[in-house]
Amino acid sequence: MIPFEFLHRAAPPYAYTHGQGSIKIRVLTHPATKWVRCIYGDRYSKSHEQIELQLVGGYSLKLWQATLFCPTNRCRYKLKTSNMDEYSGPLHNPSLWFEVPYIFQQPPFSVRPEIASVYQIFPDRFAPEFKISRKLRSYLGGTIHGIAENIDYFKSIGVNALYLNPIWVSASYHHYDVIDHYSIDKHLGDMTSWLEFTQLAKNKNLAVILDGVFNHTSDRHPYFQHAKAFSDSPYANYYKQLPNLSFETFAFVKEMPKLNLENEKVLSLIQEVMTYWERSGVTGWRLDVANEMPRHSWNYLRSKFPKAYWIGEIWHDASEWVYDMPYTGITDYLFRGMVLDLLKNKITQEQFVDRYLLHEMLYTDKQHSANWAIIGSHDTPRITTEVQGNKDLVDLAFAVQWSSNQTPVLYYGDEAYLEGGKDPLCRAPFSPAAGTNNLIKELACIRNTFSWISGCPLEKVYLDQHGLLHIERSVNGNTIGLIVNLCKSSASVDTADAQTVVATRPIRNGLIPPCSAVVKVLSR
Question: Does the global pTM surpass 0.85?
Answer without folding.
Answer: yes
